[in-house]
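Researcher: Go.
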Amino acid sequence: MVKEKKPESVGERTMSWIRSIVVALVLWFVLRTLLVGAFHITSGSMEDTLLVGDVLFVNKALYGAQIPLSNKQLPGFRRPRRFDVVVFESVEEPGLMIVKRLIGAPGDTIEMRDNFVFLNGEAVDEPYVLRYDESSDPADPKMRLWQRRYLVGKNAEQYRPTLRNWGPLVVPPDSFLAMGDNRDYSYDSRYWGFLGRDRIHGRAMVVYYSYDKNGILPLPFLTAIRWRRLLTRLK
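Model: Structure:
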């Protein structure tokens, strides 16, 4: 004889819902902290690869996610590589997250000549780069201040780097040189120096949402979405 299952009381149903919610929150926290994150593009420094209003999936597990409430990292699947688009903590503003492309890796000799990158003596093909204004080549004392330490093959006292002409520099261990794809309008390693490996939080993988806040068509919740950019994989 099969016994009928006793109906759950209101208290039991409530506890069941609470347990489900707690489990879901824990799973979301683990996923958000250790595996993937989201990043919202707010500047044009990575155009046309990334546009203002793009929202990215960031793979935190690839390089080794940081363990919450500690300075330790889990083992990663691989190290960051040249040309990865990465999300990292600002060198100058603690807590500010930035997205750029890694151009130089540890041990590389890198320079720019007339706005083109040369890596270990060879010109780099960069189809992702956007160049707006070739008419000016501003100098910035901030660039000279840090670059002289890593300069090779030139007189450091006579060295005068500019936005489009600098180096050659040797990238130190556990560091990278990061630049925006929009080379004429990107505040990047050229100004603030090399990016330490410990600051890199993950690789930007996919544009999962994109919204043009300057759209003028009616029903902006639909018409302002850049449908063609959804689920675009970054290269």
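Model: The chain has one domain: 38-233.
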